[in-house]
Write a structure and sequence with these properties.
Blueprint (H helix, E strand, L loop, with lengths): L4 H21 L3 H10 L4 H25 L5 H22 L4 H21 L12 H21 L4 H11 L5 H25 L5 H25 L1 H24 L1
């Protein structure tokens, strides 16, 4: 399909913002995917091209988090395997369960998540860590569950990963964010490979948008390093609100 300057003017600024948000709290897809759809790309091309730019931005964020020592590699390796397994099952489940029904479920889940973020201390104070075995098992279960979600629906996966890894597995903010980045990068690359094999990626547009996503991700990771936990809560609330509004609009229209 054809695209031009008008599409770039819509997509690039929003993809930059998506990279910034994703580096801090996950959920950048809540911004970048709608940007491609608003620009008029058909759904399959929008999803596929968005995966390319998202993978580029997540690669930079993951590399910087790894360099800072935020990624526990042994734990993340187990989580990545579980997430990929869950993602495959989620994709099959998407064919069996109505998208409309799933969105109605999300209308209940999202307010509860926002309530947890507002009331809980999980984003501002670290919890007493569990033993290594318990932490690994809980993190693997979370990765599998969110992998299923990512394969079935997707948006907000990074945000939910951070929340659950902190609140459920008692990881620190840095390790939870680092582990979430490793999981997201793996699932993004796997999905991108599938789309490339099926000729659904607008490669030049994806590369240009990806450059903006990388820039946003760079500034987002720097902002995370300087702002720490104080910067995460309002960004997560904003992402959840965007997601909630988007689900309502999808159900209405």
């Amino acid at each position: 399909m054809e695209w031009g300057i008008q599409e770039l003017l819509i997509i690039c600024p929003l993809v930059f913002l998506a990279g910034f948000v994703d580096a801090i709290a996950g959920g950048g897809g809540l911004i970048s995917l709608p940007a491609h759809l608003i620009a008029g790309l058909p759904v399959h091309f929008a999803i596929a091209t968005n995966k390319m730019s998202a993978a580029m931005g997540t690669s930079l964020a993951t590399a910087r988090f790894a360099w800072k020592g935020y990624i526990p590699w042994k734990l993340s390796s187990f989580c990545v395997v579980c997430a990929l397994t869950g993602s495959a099952l989620g994709a099959r489940g998407a064919l069996m369960l109505s998208d409309h029904v799933f969105k109605i479920i999300m209308l209940a889940v999202l307010p509860l998540t926002a309530f947890y973020v507002l009331r809980g201390r999980g984003l501002t104070a670290e919890k007493e860590p569990y033993g290594e075995g318990r932490t690994t098992l809980l993190s693997m279960g979370i990765a599998f569950a969110l992998g299923v979600y990512d394969g079935f629906y997707g948006p907000g996966t990074g945000t939910f990963l951070i929340l659950l890894l902190m609140g459920g597995a008692h990881l620190t903010l840095q390790k939870a964010n680092g582990t979430a980045k490793a999981i997201n990068l793996t699932t993004n690359l796997a999905a991108l490979a599938v789309f490339l094999l099926n000729d659904k990626v607008l490669i030049p547009l994806g590369l240009i948008a990806g450059a903006f996503n990388v820039a946003g991700s760079y500034f987002g990771t720097r902002f995370f390093e300087r702002g720490g936990a104080k910067a995460v809560r309002p960004v997560m609330i904003g992402v959840l609100v965007i997601f909630f509004v988007r689900v309502i609009l999808d159900l209405m229209f």
